[in-house]
Specification:
This protein is α+β, with helices and mostly antiparallel strands. Helix content is about 30%, strand content about 25%.
Length: about 675
Amino acid sequence: MSPDDERSTLAIGVDIGGTFTDFVVYDRRSVKTFKVLSTPGDPAQAVLDGVRKLSPAPGYRVVHGSTVATNALLERKGARAAFVTTQGFRDTLQIGRQTRRNLYNWFSGGVPALVPQARCLEVPERVDHRGHVLRPLAKRSLTSLIKTLRTQQVEAVALSLLFSFVNPEHERHIAQRLRDAGFFVSASHELVPAFREFERASTTVVNAYVSPGLNRYLETLEESLPGGSFHVMQSNGGRIRAAQVRQEGVRSILSGPAGGVIGAEYLARLAGFSQLITFDMGGTSTDVSVVNGVIHTTSEAEVAGLPIRVPVLDIHTVGAGGGSLARVDAGGALRVGPESAGADPGPACYGRGGQVATVTDANAFLGRLPATGLLGGALPLDRAATREALAALSREFAAHAAGTHVDLAEVALGILQVVNAEMERAIRVISIERGHDPRDYVLLSFGGAGGMHVCELARSLNVGRVLIPLAASTLSALGMLTANVFLDYVRTVMCPGETSFEELERRFVPMVEQAQEDLAIQQVPVAARHVHCELDLRYQGQSFELTVPFSPVFRAAFHEQHVRRYGHKDETVGLEIVNLRVRAIGDVSPPRIEAQDPGPVDSSGAVCHERRLVFSSGPRSVPFYDRSLLRPGHHVSGPAVIFQDDTTILLPESDHAQVDTWQNVLVTIGDARAESR
């Protein structure tokens, strides 16, 4: 089924979160959403439950972000893998890369390698940096290698030979022998044919570590749900068919957060905003990113402390979410996260056995969640369990403060202050610390927990406007339905900067041809295909590169970008062309969302009741607005709570909200000193 045919079938976007699994369903007429509790022990079960609930006719399409690879890496529960490299380089993973931030840190123990040294193996061969064979591959040694791998009960092999990105013949031969012997093989020349030995080896190892489990997961889905096609969201913000992901699981490590950024940019563009900071607060973590008209990717990401050199969206993540656990540390200070209650047992207020106070429990105790519970009342709140969890935390404080009693409301407010500070710090990392002034941006909030915290965060950051979509809690799943097909390719060339445009164009030809072939495999129609070429350049003597579009003026583009990034340029210094990059794009028709004409500003008809909420300034009676009754044009003044089945928005006293024509809630932060620029 080609992307152009999507409107003729049911499209289902699925995002597996730590607490809930989100579904967005598009059937040409409407967009509908729902949630089911995640099943951490078997993530496929939640997906199967949700899809079966729809009883879709054959021909449906599923696009989803998988946490299988992510969790395998974070929890160190991946495949039993081995690392095979050139003789003399078996310590590559253990040595790693020296970084300045840890150079003088006596307390930095580094990140343990995914493959222990006993399973780091060598083969006699050697290729130099120009691809010349210095030592032919000792093919007879492969019989012994295979025997050793079987003795060590290895499931997956990461194969990364020295300079195989220049001449892959030795690596290609070994990979075929190992595959013939029944091993899953992750070969660096197929995955990331680029220089920097440690980073290339690390990426190859991560892929070998996570792919077998992801392969079994996808196989379970396809066998249990016949009649549908499966695509998986990649970390680069694009979708690809599940068959390719089975071999390259590393490309979906950050697929869930990537879907959120794609969905946020899509809805913001409809609403007329191009400068935004995305704020995705879920049950386990918070993901933030900056969009300056375009979504930014990076090839220098780290996940769980391990470098991954495949393109990913530039997203910063912290362990702060609605399910983040609160505790008192050894010094008597309140800590929140990164540990999470997850879906099982979940926050105490869910009534599923949770006993430790979480961020959601703090909001529930302070009266900020609907009295009927979550998911439209399907998940009632256990107020007794909430009180007991906070009381236990209060007793921990008392033990550190000579028996001083701490009021439960103060404990709950303290939890929110701590988690807000952590999330504010994350936003500062991707904005202020990179030269972006938050006052120039709209803060776009999504994720099930984001609406409770976003206005206070905006106030702290001096952001003037907040945008909260109607599908805020399921926006990552919606983003997966709007995502195009993206395929990325890289090749190290190490050319002098004066290399002619025509010569570089010639070198791009095989990469572009491969991209076109792969787009055809993805069943992208010719008219929907686009291929973009880029160059990684640096000044001679520099260690890192900047990526610029490939054009006749690529040198001038590099100097301009160097000024924007570092504040200076030097056109007298020679340039070096490090890598060629190609991005292949297959356009996809996103779900159609219709604008509505605005109506009257009076929103009093959407008020369902008033409740007593506790703020830092004291308790106050606050109106609760049913978002399903709010229409474009309605205005709401704070303090107020706007609730819907799957998320809640807290509007502080000095803030004002308006429903726009796309049914987003647009909040003006009352005392923010934002400037129009």
